[in-house]
Design brief:
CATH class: Mainly Beta
Oligomer: single chain
CATH superfamily: Immunoglobulins
Number of strands: 8
CATH topology: Immunoglobulin-like
Distance between the termini: 60 Å
Number of helices: 0
Number of domains: 1
Order of helices and strands: EEEEEEEE
Shape: elongated
Largest sheet: 5 strands, mixed
Strand order of the largest sheet: 2-8-7-4-5
């Protein structure tokens, strides 16, 4: 079983995250050894247009910014794949609003 522990997003309210800091994390408690994990994301529930294949079976986290999606509301789920190509059912879907964090002010001085 693959579980995403990406905050408590099972609430009715959409969680807001910083694109540059958000991290997907998961645990693997299934039988057998996966050879890869797949994070699937899209802009509507159940419609995943982006899939990131994580080929390190020991990985337990992935930076959202490395998906290259930018700002917006996203719905994501995850699967595990074994060496025979068998893919698990998807985890429960998580959703969140990814935004760009504040920029550092420039030209700060005292005259």
């Amino acid at each position: 079983m693959v579980m995403l522990l990406f905050a408590a997003i099972a609430q009715a309210q959409t969680k807001s995250v910083d694109v540059g800091r958000a991290v997907f994390t998961w645990e693997y408690a299934g039988q057998g050894q996966p050879t890869e994990f797949r994070i699937k994301c899209g802009t509507s529930s159940g419609n995943y247009t982006t899939t990131k294949v994580i080929t390190d079976p020991a990985a337990r986290s992935y930076l959202f910014r490395d998906l290259g999606l930018g700002s917006g509301v996203y719905y994501c789920a995850m699967t595990a794949v074994n060496k025979y190509g068998g893919e698990t059912p998807a985890t429960a879907e998580i959703f969140f609003d990814a935004g760009v964090g504040a920029s550092t002010p420039t030209k700060f001085n005292l005259d």
